[in-house]
C-alpha cells in the first residue's frame, strides 16, 4: 500500500547504474527525480537528457518533480524522456488547471506540489484533477534538510479532503524523512515517502530501503483493520 521513492538527487551520479540497482534490490517502488532550474529554487540539477539516461537504467516509474519556472514549456520534453509522473508546483503555475490538463494529455500522471508555507486549502480547487499531491516537508532546493514538523498537520488536512471527496489521489511527502520519523507520516496519511539522503548517504542502500519497507509492513500489520 505504501510506496518508497528514493530521491536520486542524493545518489552518487558517478555510479548511478549501481545506485539504482541497489535501491531496486531493496524493494524501491519508484524513483523521485528532483528537477531544479536555479530560478524557482536556488539550485541547479539536471534536465530531460539525464531523465532519458535514467530511464534506460530502470523499469520502475520515474516521478519527475519540476521545481522550475514556466513548467508548461518543458512538460512534453520530460514526458518524452520517460517520466511517468510529472509534478509541478502550485507556486510556479499561473494557470494550474491548464498545466495539469497538459500533463494528462501526454499520458503521464499529474501531480501538484506545495511548499511548506503554502496551505493545503490553496489546492482544494485542483485536487479533484490530479493523481498526486506532493507536500514538501522542507523548503525545496537542497537535499539533507531537517524535516518541518508542521508538515504532519498538512498531510492530515490533505487526507481529510481526499477521503471526504472519495478521490483517487496519492499523498507524497518529500524532505527530511528517515527511518525514525517515517511512521509519523504514515499515521498522518502519506502514501508515498520520498527519501534521499537517508537512503543514498547510508552505509548500505539496499538494507536501508529494506528497513523502510519493513516499517511500512509493520505499520500496515498494526493497523490492519484500518486497511481491510
Automatic annotation (TrEMBL):
Pathway: Carbohydrate degradation. InterPro entries: Aldolase_TIM, Ribul_P_3_epim, Ribul_P_3_epim-like, RibuloseP-bd_barrel. Substrate binds at residues 7, 65, 141-144, 174-176, 196-197. It catalyses: D-ribulose 5-phosphate = D-xylulose 5-phosphate. Signal peptide: none annotated. GO terms for molecular function: D-ribulose-phosphate 3-epimerase activity; metal ion binding. The active site is at 34 (proton acceptor), 174 (proton donor). One of its GO terms (biological process) is pentose catabolic process. It is an enzyme of class 5 (isomerase). Gene3D superfamilies: Aldolase class I. Its EC number is 5.1.3.1. This is Ribulose-phosphate 3-epimerase. It comes from Candidatus Kryptonium thompsonii. The lineage of its organism: Bacteria, Pseudomonadati, Candidatus Kryptoniota, Candidatus Kryptonium.
Amino acid at each position: 500500500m505504501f510506496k518508497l521513492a528514493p530521491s536520486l538527487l542524493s545518489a552518487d551520479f558517478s555510479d548511478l547504474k549501481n545506485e539504482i540497482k541497489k535501491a531496486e534490490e531493496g524493494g524501491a517502488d519508484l524513483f523521485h527525480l528532483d528537477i531544479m532550474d536555479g530560478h524557482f529554487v536556488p539550485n541547479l540539477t539536471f534536465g530531460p537528457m539525464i531523465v532519458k539516461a535514467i530511464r534506460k537504467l530502470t523499469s520502475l516509474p520515474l516521478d519527475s518533480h519540476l521545481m522550475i519556472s514556466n513548467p508548461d514549456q518543458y512538460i512534453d520534453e520530460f514526458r518524452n524522456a520517460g517520466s511517468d509522473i510529472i509534478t509541478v508546483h502550485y507556486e510556479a503555475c499561473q494557470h494550474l488547471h491548464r498545466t495539469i490538463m497538459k500533463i494528462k494529455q501526454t499520458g503521464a500522471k499529474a501531480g501538484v506540489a506545495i511548499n511548506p508555507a503554502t496551505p493545503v486549502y490553496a489546492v482544494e480547487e485542483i485536487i479533484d484533477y490530479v493523481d498526486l499531491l506532493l507536500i514538501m516537508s522542507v523548503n525545496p532546493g537542497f537535499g539533507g534538510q531537517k524535516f518541518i514538523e508542521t508538515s504532519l498537520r498538512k498531510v492530515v488536512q490533505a487526507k481529510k479532503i481526499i477521503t471526504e471527496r472519495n478521490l483517487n489521489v496519492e499523498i507524497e511527502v518529500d524532505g527530511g524523512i528517515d527511518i525514525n520519523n517515517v511512521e509519523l507520516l504514515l499515521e498522518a496519511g502519506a502514501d508515498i515517502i520520498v527519501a534521499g539522503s537517508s537512503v543514498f548517504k547510508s552505509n548500505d542502500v539496499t538494507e536501508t530501503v529494506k528497513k523502510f519497507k519493513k516499517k511500512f509492513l509493520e505499520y500496515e500489520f498494526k493497523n490492519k483493520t484500518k486497511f481491510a
